[in-house]
What we know:
The chain is α+β, with helices and mostly antiparallel strands. The protein has a 5-stranded mixed β-sheet with strand order 1-4-3-2-5. The protein starts with 5 loop residues before the first strand and ends with a strand. It has 2 helices and 5 strands.
Amino acid sequence: xxxxxxxxxxxxxxxxxxxxxxxxxxxxxxxxxxxxxxxxxxxxxxxxxxxxxxxxxxxxxxxxxxxxxxxxxxxxxxxxxxxxxxxxxxxxxxxxxxxxxxxxxxxxxxxxxxxxxxxxxxxxxxxxxxxxxxx
Length: 135
Protein backbone atom coordinates (compact mmCIF):
# COMPACT_ATOMS: atom_id res chain seq x y z
CA UNK A 1 0.00 0.00 0.00
CA UNK A 2 1.34 3.41 -0.99
CA UNK A 3 1.77 6.07 1.71
CA UNK A 4 -0.53 9.08 1.72
CA UNK A 5 0.97 12.08 -0.01
CA UNK A 6 0.36 14.27 3.05
CA UNK A 7 -0.24 13.98 6.76
CA UNK A 8 -1.13 16.36 9.56
CA UNK A 9 1.89 17.06 11.73
CA UNK A 10 0.43 19.44 14.30
CA UNK A 11 -2.31 21.95 14.97
CA UNK A 12 -2.80 24.79 17.42
CA UNK A 13 -5.38 27.37 18.38
CA UNK A 14 -3.53 30.66 18.40
CA UNK A 15 -6.45 33.09 18.57
CA UNK A 16 -9.62 32.72 20.59
CA UNK A 17 -11.99 35.66 21.04
CA UNK A 18 -15.17 35.34 23.07
CA UNK A 19 -17.64 38.11 23.84
CA UNK A 20 -20.65 36.48 25.47
CA UNK A 21 -22.46 39.76 26.09
CA UNK A 22 -24.00 39.43 22.63
CA UNK A 23 -24.57 35.66 22.81
CA UNK A 24 -28.03 34.31 22.01
CA UNK A 25 -28.79 30.69 21.31
CA UNK A 26 -30.98 31.32 18.29
CA UNK A 27 -30.29 32.46 14.74
CA UNK A 28 -26.60 31.69 14.72
CA UNK A 29 -24.60 32.56 11.64
CA UNK A 30 -21.35 30.66 11.09
CA UNK A 31 -18.58 31.83 8.79
CA UNK A 32 -15.59 29.75 7.71
CA UNK A 33 -12.45 31.38 6.30
CA UNK A 34 -9.59 29.15 5.10
CA UNK A 35 -6.16 30.40 4.04
CA UNK A 36 -2.94 28.59 3.27
CA UNK A 37 0.81 29.08 3.12
CA UNK A 38 2.98 26.50 1.38
CA UNK A 39 6.67 26.33 2.29
CA UNK A 40 8.46 24.79 -0.73
CA UNK A 41 11.69 24.18 1.14
CA UNK A 42 10.12 22.27 4.06
CA UNK A 43 7.22 20.83 2.00
CA UNK A 44 4.85 21.98 4.73
CA UNK A 45 1.41 23.46 4.12
CA UNK A 46 0.02 25.67 6.88
CA UNK A 47 -3.78 25.79 6.84
CA UNK A 48 -5.18 28.76 8.73
CA UNK A 49 -8.84 28.06 9.47
CA UNK A 50 -10.94 30.80 11.07
CA UNK A 51 -14.44 30.15 12.38
CA UNK A 52 -16.65 33.08 13.39
CA UNK A 53 -20.03 32.67 15.03
CA UNK A 54 -22.46 35.54 15.44
CA UNK A 55 -26.16 36.12 15.91
CA UNK A 56 -27.92 37.15 12.74
CA UNK A 57 -29.05 40.34 14.50
CA UNK A 58 -25.50 41.35 15.45
CA UNK A 59 -22.64 42.09 13.06
CA UNK A 60 -19.87 41.37 15.59
CA UNK A 61 -19.01 37.74 16.22
CA UNK A 62 -19.30 36.62 19.82
CA UNK A 63 -16.91 33.77 19.08
CA UNK A 64 -13.95 33.76 16.72
CA UNK A 65 -11.37 30.99 16.71
CA UNK A 66 -8.30 30.61 14.55
CA UNK A 67 -6.74 27.19 14.17
CA UNK A 68 -3.49 26.54 12.35
CA UNK A 69 -2.89 23.06 10.98
CA UNK A 70 0.47 21.95 9.61
CA UNK A 71 0.53 19.31 6.88
CA UNK A 72 3.68 17.60 5.62
CA UNK A 73 3.87 16.45 2.00
CA UNK A 74 5.83 13.34 1.11
CA UNK A 75 5.40 13.17 -2.66
CA UNK A 76 5.05 16.86 -3.55
CA UNK A 77 8.08 18.92 -4.56
CA UNK A 78 6.46 22.19 -5.62
CA UNK A 79 3.39 24.33 -5.04
CA UNK A 80 2.02 23.36 -8.45
CA UNK A 81 2.10 19.66 -7.51
CA UNK A 82 -0.33 20.01 -4.58
CA UNK A 83 -3.21 17.72 -5.56
CA UNK A 84 -6.76 19.05 -5.73
CA UNK A 85 -8.00 16.54 -3.18
CA UNK A 86 -5.68 18.08 -0.56
CA UNK A 87 -7.69 21.32 -0.42
CA UNK A 88 -10.88 19.46 0.47
CA UNK A 89 -9.32 16.85 2.75
CA UNK A 90 -7.11 19.20 4.77
CA UNK A 91 -10.18 21.15 5.91
CA UNK A 92 -12.06 17.92 6.61
CA UNK A 93 -9.14 16.68 8.74
CA UNK A 94 -8.83 19.90 10.76
CA UNK A 95 -12.55 20.61 11.27
CA UNK A 96 -13.24 17.97 13.98
CA UNK A 97 -10.58 19.59 16.18
CA UNK A 98 -12.15 23.02 15.64
CA UNK A 99 -15.62 21.67 16.29
CA UNK A 100 -14.56 20.00 19.56
CA UNK A 101 -12.68 23.09 20.71
CA UNK A 102 -15.70 25.35 20.14
CA UNK A 103 -17.84 22.97 22.21
CA UNK A 104 -15.25 22.87 24.98
CA UNK A 105 -14.71 26.63 25.16
CA UNK A 106 -18.40 27.49 25.19
CA UNK A 107 -19.40 24.89 27.77
CA UNK A 108 -16.51 25.93 30.03
CA UNK A 109 -17.77 29.53 29.82
CA UNK A 110 -20.92 28.33 31.62
CA UNK A 111 -23.27 29.12 28.73
CA UNK A 112 -25.19 26.58 26.68
CA UNK A 113 -22.48 24.88 24.66
CA UNK A 114 -22.29 25.43 20.95
CA UNK A 115 -22.12 22.04 19.31
CA UNK A 116 -21.60 22.48 15.61
CA UNK A 117 -23.10 19.83 13.39
CA UNK A 118 -20.95 18.01 10.90
CA UNK A 119 -20.72 20.06 7.73
CA UNK A 120 -19.86 19.26 4.17
CA UNK A 121 -17.07 21.82 3.77
CA UNK A 122 -16.03 20.73 0.29
CA UNK A 123 -17.29 24.06 -1.05
CA UNK A 124 -14.37 25.76 0.72
CA UNK A 125 -11.72 24.07 -1.43
CA UNK A 126 -11.73 26.79 -4.10
CA UNK A 127 -11.57 29.52 -1.48
CA UNK A 128 -8.60 27.78 0.16
CA UNK A 129 -6.85 27.34 -3.17
CA UNK A 130 -7.36 31.02 -4.04
CA UNK A 131 -6.19 32.14 -0.58
CA UNK A 132 -2.99 30.08 -0.62
CA UNK A 133 0.42 31.66 -1.12
CA UNK A 134 3.94 30.28 -1.43
CA UNK A 135 6.64 31.03 1.08
